[in-house]
DNA sequence: GAACGATACACTGTCGACAGAATGAAATTC
DNA sequence: GAATTTCATTCTGTCGACAGTGTATCGTTC
């Protein structure tokens, strides 16, 4: 970890990629709000390009789950119901718990340093823009998944990106913001082997407040506990 | 559940959707093989449309994971390494196990009948085309996920579709084909509560042979066992 | 004969334009 | 005055075309 590689693999970023990033940033920074319609011609005029790369970028974002397409009616920024938030989080809990177990097995000081660095920036952002916090939040989790494996990262990203895209605009009370920020610390503790909790418990605590979920996770408390028992019995 | 709704929401399938389906079918039926390049102009000529909807369809398939795009070089049908197969399956094991636990909790006779019906068709296809078998195989698993929840289904689909797209062309020895087909039965037994195994065990048995994985799953046996130990030490 | 370089071809990325569908406003009827 | 139909506008879906890049072939040199 003395320094980064000299030459990063050069992405020749086609217009499509640039545009996708620009629009994505606009959504994550709250400039475009959930439910809002995205006018292709408008975007094309604003960005001084034709509609072709705009459409391609929007489709890419659609498959990422932060945009939905109503054929012949337009593309809209995703608008999640509370119910969706719960369901996504219940799946997330299972997958990210596994990712955390894997990450813990290969946890290096470098990885820990990186997480701490992100967390420091997040803490310093407490009074600042929500969009920066959300971005750092996502970066933090992604840094955890990145270590274990390519596919679990891709899968988790596909699942969770819409969550973050949506949560940007949720007005949060300041006490919730504090929880969002400081509940990341136990995750690092878990990864460093300093926690006695299960991955599921640590994550559940982390996820509980920000989206004000009900007390129980549909999947976790009902089913996972049963298998936990069986697993113990088996061993 | 007396009958289905009278009017299904009418999808006006744009050209893009038709084309995506056509190309997808071509891949799953083995007409286009993994690693093969997809020429947009060629496809446009063959299908008598312009390149625009072709590009959009290909991009859609790209985000589904059955096509990869090398910018300015072309789109290629996904070509998975054995290593990828392992990694995907290790993630799949975690997620699909959870899906099966959820499905078991809400398992209805109707759902069981549907699974049996698919399985019957699969068994009758033993001597027939591999593509049909793969399609039924996928349909079977999807039917399991569909009951629990929207998001776990979407997530699993995003993860596994490339697997099936790839497995079509893997020449399988006949004994493996038999295993692929008949190892589905224990899954139904599990869902019906007639199994004493864990969801993970049932799935691992099911996934072990078809893609000729080594004895162990990278995530499950190597890593999960470590964490299992830690967990035991703790408790 | 093999490796290197130059040239020609093919294909992707991007553009501007048109047709048909969806939306909203105006006009008409009860 | 309210509801419904008609009309105009706007936008998406699709098309054909062009420019620049990547690829392959051919010729050249050692």
Q: Find the structural class of chain A using helix and strand composition.
A: mainly alpha
Number of strands of chain A: 3
In DSSP terms (H or I, runs of 4 or more residues), the helix count of chain A works out at 11
The CATH class of the largest domain in chain A, by name, is: Mainly Alpha
What's the Cα radius of gyration of chain A?
19 Å
Helix content class of chain A: 55-70%
* Separation of the first and last Cα atoms of chain A: 39 Å
Most extensive chain interface and residues per partner: A-B, 50 and 48 residues
- Point out poorly predicted stretches of chain A: 1-5, 209-235
Give the helices and strands of chain A as they follow along the chain: HEHHEEHHHHHHHH
Shape assignment of chain A: elongated
Q: What portion of the residues of chain A fall into strands of 2 or more residues? A: under 5%
Strand order of the largest sheet of chain A: 1-3-2
Q: Could you state the CATH homologous superfamily of the largest domain in chain A?
A: GntR ligand-binding domain-like
What would the CATH topology of the largest domain in chain A be? Answer: Four Helix Bundle (Hemerythrin (Met), subunit A)
Largest sheet of chain A: 3 strands, antiparallel
User: What's the number of structural domains of chain A?
Assistant: 2
Oligomer: homodimer
Can you give the mean pLDDT of chain A? 80
